[in-house]
UniProtKB/TrEMBL annotation:
Subcellular location: Cytoplasm
Record EC number: 2.3.1.234
GO molecular function: iron ion binding; tRNA N(6)-L-threonylcarbamoyladenine synthase activity
Gene3D superfamilies: 3.30.420.40
Protein's name according to its UniProt entry: tRNA N6-adenosine threonylcarbamoyltransferase
UniProt key word rRNA processing: no
Domain Gcp-like: 29-322
Species the sequence originates in: Paenirhodobacter populi
GO CC term, one of those recorded: cytoplasm
HAMAP family tied to this protein: TsaD
Length: 346
């Protein structure tokens, strides 16, 4: 079969990204993946400001696409299609990306394929590790937390998820409450390495309830209470207190994710997958303690464990190019009426 080459475009949150992915007989290959973050633009506001994000995407998309094509050594003529995140996400940013993709597709006479951002994350372990369908995926980021059975390139079954905060959000809030820098995940992980996870008590929310749903907002309340208790007792927060609080919080997240993954795995294994595999994706998958725990859970049932490299765990356009390419292979095409969707469940 002929190789397929797709351009991918991503602009649903605070990263502007473009990438080129080629699918040949030997499997998919990432020819380039360019990501321009907007972190510095939003830092002073303590969070992503949608209007600033949309404007920055509109400004940076062209240059990201040009760089991605140049790095891949690919001209528009060499492409077989353009894939773009059409949601879910911040509507202004998604619209910027969709308009950019439409312009390129119309100008170069290429097929256009709209992609669900979550499908991009969900298909990443296949792109990076060659996992066969069906596989179990834990998607954990600043905005998402769900278990998906990935059955095909456009076939996903959600079997549970958070009922309130995403774990990344909980890491970020923990960092904020302890005066650590944002994004909070890496800072909390570093502190946790020096701390005693048993020094403070943290709950293990929803473990007493059946199923794979999770809750992380209670951990923030527990952290606040433990922090204030320590401050009242010692007239301030010591370095050790801070490390202990981080360690306790992270251990609670690990326990919850591990136990819920165990349950999700048994539900998945009931499908008798030929090559049982579990994968993690999303920014929180960068956490080494969490990875190690999930790896243990997978090993416990003889399932393969896959965690994409960090730059492909967080938002990027290679995953969008790949998801679009796979949708294209299934016959999906979008027209110039493709619209940006702020909400779009998988
Ligand atoms: O996937 P991502 O880049 O963006 C979305 O949320 O879609 O994920 C970012 C999130 C942030 O909340 C960040 O704190 C978290 O991933 N994160 C981590 C770590 N590195 C990033 N959380 C825990 N441990 C880490 N090492
Ligand atoms: Zn994402």
């Amino acid at each position: 079969t002929r190789a397929l080459t797709f351009l991918g475009i991503e602009s649903s949150c605070d990263d502007t990204a473009a990438a080129v992915v080629r699918m040949g007989d030997a499997g998919p290959e990432i020819l380039s993946s360019v990501v321009a973050g907007q972190y510095a633009l939003h830092e002073a506001y303590g969070g992503v400001v949608p209007e600033i994000a949309a404007r920055a995407h509109a400004e940076k998309l062209d240059i990201c696409v040009e760089s991605a094509l140049a790095e891949a050594g690919v001209r528009l003529d060499d492409l077989d299609g353009v894939a773009v995140t059409a949601g879910p996400g911040l509507i202004g940013g998604v619209m910027s990306g969709v308009m950019c993709a439409k312009g390129i597709a119309a100008g170069a006479g290429l097929p256009l394929v709209g992609v669900n951002h979550l499908a991009g994350h969900a298909l990443t372990p296949q792109l990076t590790d060659g996992l066969a369908f069906p596989y179990l995926l834990l998607l954990v980021s600043g905005g998402h937390c769900q278990f998906l059975i990935v059955r095909g390139a456009d076939d996903f079954t959600r079997i549970g998820g958070t009922i309130d905060d995403a774990p990344g959000e909980a890491f970020d809030k923990t960092a904020k409450l302890l005066g650590l820098p944002q994004p909070g995940g890496p800072a909390v992980e570093t502190e946790a390495a020096e701390g005693d996870p048993k020094a403070f008590h943290f709950p293990r929310p929803l473990l007493d309830r059946p199923g794979c749903d999770m809750s992380f907002s209670g951990l923030k309340t527990a952290l606040l209470r433990a922090r204030d208790g320590a401050m009242a007792a010692r007239g301030g927060l010591t370095r050790q207190d801070r490390a202990d609080l981080c360690a306790g919080f992270q251990a609670a997240v690990c326990d919850v994710l591990a136990e819920k993954t165990r349950r999700a795995l048994s539900e998945y294994l009931a499908l008798s997958p030929a090559e049982p595999a579990i994968a993690v994706a999303g920014g929180v998958a960068a956490n080494k303690a969490i990875r190690a725990r999930l790896e243990q859970v997978a090993a416990g049932v003889g399932a393969r464990f896959a965690a994409p490299p960090l730059r492909l765990c967080t938002d990027n356009a290679a995953m969008i190019a790949y998801a679009g390419l796979r949708r294209f292979q299934l016959g999906h095409r979008d027209g110039m009426d493709l619209s940006a969707r702020p909400r779009w469940p998988l």
